[in-house]
From TrEMBL, chain A:
SMART domains: AAA. Pfam families: ABC_tran (PF00005). It is found in: Cell membrane. This is Energy-coupling factor transporter ATPase. One of its GO terms (molecular function) is cobalt ion transmembrane transporter activity. It comes from the Bacteria. The keyword Phosphoprotein does not apply. The keyword Cell division does not apply. Residues 5-242 form the ABC transporter domain. InterPro entries: AAA+_ATPase, ABC_transporter-like_ATP-bd, ABC_transporter-like_CS, ABC_transpr_CbiO/EcfA_su, ECF_ABC_transporter_ATP-bd, EcfA_1, P-loop_NTPase. Belongs to the ABC transporter superfamily. Its main location: membrane. One of its GO terms (cellular component) is ATP-binding cassette (ABC) transporter complex.
From TrEMBL, chain B:
Its main location: membrane. One of its GO terms (cellular component) is plasma membrane. The keyword Kinase does not apply. The keyword Cell membrane applies. This is Energy-coupling factor transporter transmembrane protein EcfT. It comes from the Bacteria. GO terms for molecular function: transmembrane transporter activity.
UniProtKB/TrEMBL annotation, chain C:
It is found in: Cell membrane. One of its GO terms (molecular function) is ATP hydrolysis activity. Residues 5-244 form the ABC transporter domain. ATP-binding (A) component of a common energy-coupling factor (ECF) ABC-transporter complex. One of its GO terms (cellular component) is ATP-binding cassette (ABC) transporter complex. Belongs to the ABC transporter superfamily. Energy-coupling factor EcfA family. Keywords: ATP-binding, Cell membrane, Membrane, Nucleotide-binding, Translocase, Transport. This is Energy-coupling factor transporter ATP-binding protein EcfA2. It is a peripheral membrane protein. Gene3D superfamilies: P-loop containing nucleotide triphosphate hydrolases. PROSITE patterns: ABC_TRANSPORTER_1, ABC_TRANSPORTER_2. PANTHER family: ENERGY-COUPLING FACTOR TRANSPORTER ATP-BINDING PROTEIN ECFA2 (PTHR43553:SF27), HEAVY METAL TRANSPORTER (PTHR43553). It comes from Thermoactinomyces mirandus.
Amino acid sequence: MEPIIQFEHVWFRYQVDEPDPPWVLKDIRLNIDPGEYVSIVGNNGSGKSTLARLANGLLLPTKGRVMISGMETSSEQDIWQIRRTVGMVFQNPENQIVATSVEDDIAFGLENIGVPPLQMEEKIKNAVKAVGLEGFEHHEPHTLSGGQKQRLAIAGVIVLEPDVIIFDESTSMLDPVGRKTILEIMQSLNRRGKTIIHITHSAEEAFMADRMIVMHQGECKLDEATGRLYQEAMRLKEWELDVPLEIELWDRLRQKGWPLPDKIINKEELVSEIWRLLSRT
Amino acid sequence: MNGFIVGMYLPGDSFVHQLDPRAKLGFAFIFMFMVFFADRLLACAIFLAFVLVAIHIAKVPYRLFFTALKPIIFIILLSSLLHLWMTKGGEMILAFPGITIYEEGIRQAGIISIRLLLLVAIASLLTFTTSPVDLTDGMESLLSPLRKIGVPAHELALMMSIALRFIPTLWEETEKIRKAQMARGIDFEEGHILKRLKKHLPILIPLFISAFRRAEDLALAMEARCYRGSEGRTKWRQLHYTRRDLWLLLILILLGMVLLIFRH
Amino acid sequence: MEIVVKDLSVVYMPDTPYEKQALSHIDLRIESGCFAAIAGATGSGKSTLIQCMAGLIRPASGQVQVGDKIFHAGSKSGAALRKHVGIVFQYPEHQLFEETIAKDIAFGLKNRGITEPKLDREVHRMMDLVGLPGELSDRSPFHLSGGQMRRVAIAGILALKPDVLIMDEPTAGLDRQGKQELFRLLKDLHEKQGLTVILVTHDMNDVAKYADQVFVLSGGKLALSGTPAEVFEQYQIWQELSLELPQVSQLVAKINEQLDVPLPYSIFTLEELEQSLAKRFVQREAPT
């Protein structure tokens, strides 16, 4: 299977007046296959958002190249096809909405790519349904909650039927309820075959993906399936990242000499291990 | 959003609400133009009566029009006072030391106040009964023939739509910044007018910075959603004239006749 | 400084179709020198409540008392409260406006009529307090990182020497490091400077870690109050309010699904959970 996103030795820095601006990304090599659910974690300034913007041609690499379904992002004639392939949901829900009603905002992308008006109705309806905004079609955006606005932003992206959707810290400005709905939508989109890339600084959210990439100071430090990552998770502290609570507990209990297995693959397994130890007679 | 009424839309299904936005926009534009030719008190009164009936049909509460008028009441008063003092002609009605008021002055003051009132009322009626979406679509459609001579119809309409979209957001933000600066010891109610204006800098600067940041974010989001100007773009909403819209044409002709009959 | 809220109600846009009861009949007392947390879902009224405490929103009925200053529907303004209560809003870096960091921190002090050379001295003291290097004072605040900009904004409030400091979601948008640094600062202010701190947050992990007193709002009413242990124990009510418990409590609930004798729900820190499990483990081994 051909990877849908390929980063080939990508280096990036912003063009500024300074003589030698620092590299924001250093020699990134990365392949993402269709249908994957990948999280990219890192602190502010680790280069993770820049990475996202390179993946749909909003930024172009300084050195190396980024390929989307075999198209190079620096190609002017392919760029619109690339943007249709890779959709992007941003951080601030407020600043992504263009139109003065929910359905008109969803229509915006369709209008941009020249979909015939009669075909739009159906697509808009499906997008509204996919994010659970039924009944809000005629609402003005400012009457929506933060979580609802972010769902609208997602609807505006999925209506273009992209293969890949990048969530660039899209949960970070929401309350717990809003965050939970967005995470659920991500999972359901992935189940329906979309490639999901979730950029976040929350380890807990990152562990919901199947694969996790750690960015630190512009470099890719770790790229591993989350199931296999559990025993290495304490290393996340090296890059100033949080460690999921259950792993911290597992680590502490092991240090106290509990006979816990070397490997756990998820929270459920840890809970049943604890239960097994406590109830063994 | 206390007292924030400019550009507000009141959803409804009245006759006026159901008119085609292009017809309404065109009507409002020609009507405003005609108001400047209504130089007889009687003609003005007929125009005013028409607007009052239209408001009634639109089922918009009259008090909302007073709220909309509030910001310009000062201008209406000032210009009618000026006319009252400066216009000479007709019989002398009152004579104080320093000023004399003539019959013509009263007439002119009356005409100018009614004209301003008509302008505000028709503009408010348009926004009260037309959703922002329809308003911008109508504008784009009316302007599109001018594209040939280089008028960026689509861009203008999009700008207007984004402005309408972000008014409530920026208004909320203004409130927030105002409170934050109050917490840093500014008292906005104290001091004379110039001092008070200067006190608003700590609100305006953060507001501008935030508006620029939002604009940058929005531009990026639009680009990611494949926006590239009007080229190759389609429109979801298609506007259709109906027989209702003929009424507006008829009314325009009637009002035009009123103007002709009561010509000066 | 003690804060006493008595029968406080607030109504937004009264007598219009948009009328909304934001707070109804709130009674609470925040003890002097305490680290209090106010929690609740979006729209629960917590933001209205803290703005009343800071003298920025006028009560429709009832009153807020800070120290000996009282603010009620008939008060001329909330200015008396504002002298004692400092409030740092969400994303406070968005209110910066001066061309240098020093000037921005000095803004509030100037409004209070403080002049040079005291002004300069105070500004540098505040920069030191929030951990901003003194040589930054003449730089533009807009070239700093997000976390540093936030410190500038906080310094501007602290410069006014409030007795009570209210923080609305102070860590929103910060990463782990930024978050830890900010809480270290808050803890310092609370312990060393003796400030009464009121934290408004969605994150119950922070509440569990730092607060002595918790107030939970729901639909404009006070739903729960007490120490974190007392409040988090009310496990069922949290689910009804669709609020998230601290992660540790969630884990305890998960473990309890399988245990015959459940762990107590008053556990909400990792250390306690570890100890409690260890105790169980030893008990289990002892009889055999």
